Amino acid sequence: MWAILPAAAVATFYVYPFFNTVILSFTDAKPLGGGGAFVGLSNYLTVLADPDFHRAVVNCLVYAVVTVPLLVLLPLLLAVLVQKTVPGIGVFRSLFYVPAIASVVVVALAWSFLLKDNGSINELLMAIGVVDGPVPFLTQRWWLLASSMAVSVWKGLPYFMILYLSALANVDSSLHEAAEMDGAGAVRRFWTVTVPGVKVMMFLVGVLAAINAMKVFSEVFLLSNGSGGIGGRASTLAMYIREVGIADSTYGSLGQGSAASVLLFLLTIGLILASRRFNSQIEEQ
Amino acid sequence: MATTISRRTMTAGLTGTVLTAGLAGCGLGGGAGGADGSGSADAGGAAPGVECEIPDANLDDTEIDRASDLQGEIRFATQNLKTDFGEFFTGLIESFQEAHPGVTITWEDTPQAEDFDSRMVTDAQTCVMADVINVPGPTIAALSQANLLMDLDVKAPGIGERFIPAVWEASVFGEEKAHTALPWYWSPSVITYNRDLMEEAGLDPDAPPTTFEEQYEMALQIADVAGGDYFAIWGNQQWNFVNTWLDHGAQVLDEAGEAFTFADDPFVLDWLTKLREVYEAGGIPKDSVTGAPNPGQQYNEGTLVFGTQNASFLRNVKDNAPDLYPVTDVAAPLHTGDSISYSGQYVAVSVTTQNAPLALAWADYVTTAENQLAWSKDPGVVIFPATPESLDDPFFTDQDESDPLGKARLVAAEHVPMAAVNAASFLITGQIQTAIMEALQLAITGGTDPQEALSTAQQTANDLLEKARS
Amino acid sequence: MSTVTDSRPRPLLRRTPWWKRARGRATALRYVLLLVVLVLLIGPLVVPLMGAFKGSGEPVFGPNATVIPQDPSLAAFTSLIEQTNLLQAVGNSLFIGALAITSHIVLATAGGYILSRKGWKGRNLLLLLMMSALIFPFESIMVSLFAQVRDLGLYDTLLGVWLPGMLGPFHLLLMRAAFLGVPDELEDAALLDGAGEWKRFWTIFLPQTRGALTIVALTSFLYAWEDYLWPLLVLRSGDNFTMMLELARLQSAFGFDYRVVLAGAIVALVPVTVMFFFTQKYFFRGIEEGGLKF
């Protein structure tokens, strides 16, 4: 009985709409109505031949490869840091959570303020003589992606920290003490006790971080005022889907946008399955 | 035990939903058949592709009587007007409802324009479009192309007589080149500048540029003197490029209106090459090329000579940089031709409305000369009515020249009679706009050769145009 | 079963490692680390947000602007209250948030528990389905979602905003992980005592996953509070606007005052921070009690 509700909710509000998307991806439906005839694979062929799509795929994959390891490890370290109760820890814990609760619009406003050419970070770098001119944090493709990744990690840190804390609660503290008695140092205990204890959570965090990376939109979009950097070179898959589909009521194509969505979906599933295999291979060794 | 039960119910529930999903799935976005089976796709306009119930009277070739006995309720959708004009519109609605007892106008205002397209597409696909909508030209063009707007030539003949003739005549949309929207408010773009910085750069603050050529010469000098301490021109040209091209007489679109020709136009190439030069010389803030469309923030920091071209944004300077407001001055729009682009807002009636008489009457009422004038007098903004009759009002000449907002009204008002509509401005939106913007970014920052960038963008734009027509 | 954690005698004669010898130094190091992280995490937000407290006579950004307001003022907050229907919007957002918390907890607990049970086929398929649901980009499903909400007659209602997000697939996965983390011995012991499935769920599983439940409550509220695009599509009349929509209205097409926008950002942060402050106490208490409880 209890299974019906959640299953029905997922089916109705996720699976069914996506099913529609899959159907749309084989039609020439237009954003403001009209079209809708079956066109076979032509939307997929258009998308797959589009250099903008290729770039978006590369950008998202790079995003995933960089942010996933950081988001799996850094929040765990942070969780270990705040796990122990010391006076005033409650204030730290609460304030640490602020990046996770600030709305993306505010976050983007704040970070572009820091990262623009005459923003605090560039002024600092120039003052200490690391660089001669401003670093193009918000304009050049890879710098913009790096800045966006920094924001993603910054915003994800506290959220994943909380996830890890809930997992750490289940790690039997006697294991720690036993290891300590065996003379294991803090670093070794982290790898031999803490990490195995939160393995399930690490995988979950990794999957979530990977999905977020493949779907990343707000960070890149807002930091570059919707441009995706000079020439739109840092545009992500979600930006591409929006651009060719629903956000362009005049020249958009729901079919093409849907096809790109389906491809994003397949790509992400592939990535997760691959990482799962990779994971279990490591474990076997 | 419990587990076996869960398994069965779960799977059953799931397949059930998926099946329904499959059956219902064809409804969305499809409709090759659509509503065009009604047999009324003649003079009144073709039926849209969305599957909505449309009263025959909205599509046939008869006029709609909007004068007599109105009743019922309609929805009126605007873009981002509530914060500044909440009181004005509430008053307007009240006076209309008083004149027509028994009618209700529900006002829906979209906060921020950015996601408006997503909202509109969702509305159109699901038949919940507002009865009367306020959108800019390119959106009117898109809606008209999809046959979603009422053909006013048929449904309300003569309604266009009150508007600036040049604007009305050129505001035709869709396959049939019909009047599907009523011109509403607009403002000529002006030049705003920081007098102190002009002087610092050795330029005469009383002799602002009048053409792009002059602005370019000044920008080079500013770049030279400023040495990176301040800048001349803002890099993001999204709000200006079409108007700048058109107002300097560029041929953006071919005569038939079927293909773009901007890449072959000497002015456009010259303009882009010069912007690239100014960037190279340090006259354009590097990160502004992909910055916000409005230069407001940098201008308010006091490090940009030429500020916003949207005179209403002067209020921004007043609020956020009070020390700069007094040294801000306003000059005529840059142009060499004898026309100034009208890139204004329109009011249109949705073809899916179930209460066409009331919708038309309301659209009519909102755009009367009297009501357009009343709104233009709002102290916080610089907007102009699209009705020449209201322009004779002393308000537009009786302004304080020492106040930048007042001066902007004076300067802009002088250019209102030069208003002209170019079909090109309706077509530059969505992916075409993105393609051009990306070309500009690449060329200005020194990457791609200007001619090559323009040609590539033009090719993309023409491909999209052709696809949209087919 | 007894708690094993605290009864274990401490070793006395072992070589004490350096960090123990220098306990004071370790604590100091911990605080230094905490402070560094604090600066990194809230510094980027605090600096720009200070603009909200600037008086009308001073620049908000730029070389002449200072981080600390020279002419501190709460005028921006007053205009915020004047320009927006703040109370109503906060009320609407809280209402949707409360619905979201309830439905997420109920559905994620139910679904997560069942997914964590062994011994029935199709589990992996359902798991994959949940994960898939996470991957669908919202913009590719929003038109369909909207059509559903319209068909249910929930267009322009707060219920319509809540409904499609009534369940977070991730929360389901999270609760599943939490239930999987409950040691088998606990359930075995209860089985020996003859406790039925329902009783085992209430007395063993649920209490063990309090921490995860707090997360579900917190993030479901957060998503509901922050969501922008979906409420924008569903809600039309100003009376139904959520906090985020109301704040977006501030950035008028005719120019706006940054101070007021920043003030709005601060107001949006406060309720969630307060909520977190209180839940974190509860949440961390669960952790401090830690270990095996039975």
Task: Spell out the blueprint of helices and strands.
The complex is a heterotrimer of chains A (285), B (470) and C (294).
Chain A: H1 4-24, H2 42-48, H3 51-83, H4 89-96, H5 98-101, H6 104-115, H7 120-127, H8 141-168, H9 173-181, H10 186-197, H11 199-214, H12 218-223, H13 237-244, H14 254-284
Helix pairs in contact in A: 1-14, 2-14, 3-8, 3-11, 3-13, 8-11, 9-10, 11-14, 13-14
Chain B: H1 2-24, E1 72-79, H2 82-99, E2 103-110, H3 116-125, E3 132-136, H4 137-145, H5 152-155, H6 165-170, E4 182-183, E5 191-194, H7 195-200, H8 212-226, H9 241-247, H10 266-281, H11 296-300, H12 314-320, E6 328-331, E7 340-341, E8 345-349, H13 356-366, H14 369-376, H15 388-391, H16 404-415, E9 419-420, H17 423-427, H18 430-444, H19 450-469
Parallel strand pairs in B: 1-2, 1-3, 7-9
Antiparallel strand pairs in B: 3-8, 4-8, 5-6
Helix pairs in contact in B: 8-10, 18-19
Chain C: H1 18-21, H2 23-49, H3 75-83, H4 86-116, H5 123-135, H6 138-151, H7 158-162, H8 169-180, H9 184-192, H10 197-208, H11 210-226, H12 229-234, H13 243-248, H14 258-289
Overview features:
heterotrimer; B: 470 residues; alpha/beta; D-Maltodextrin-Binding Protein, domain 2; 2 domains; five-stranded mixed sheet; two-stranded antiparallel ribbon; 9 strands; globular; C: 294 residues; mainly alpha; MetI-like fold; disordered N terminus
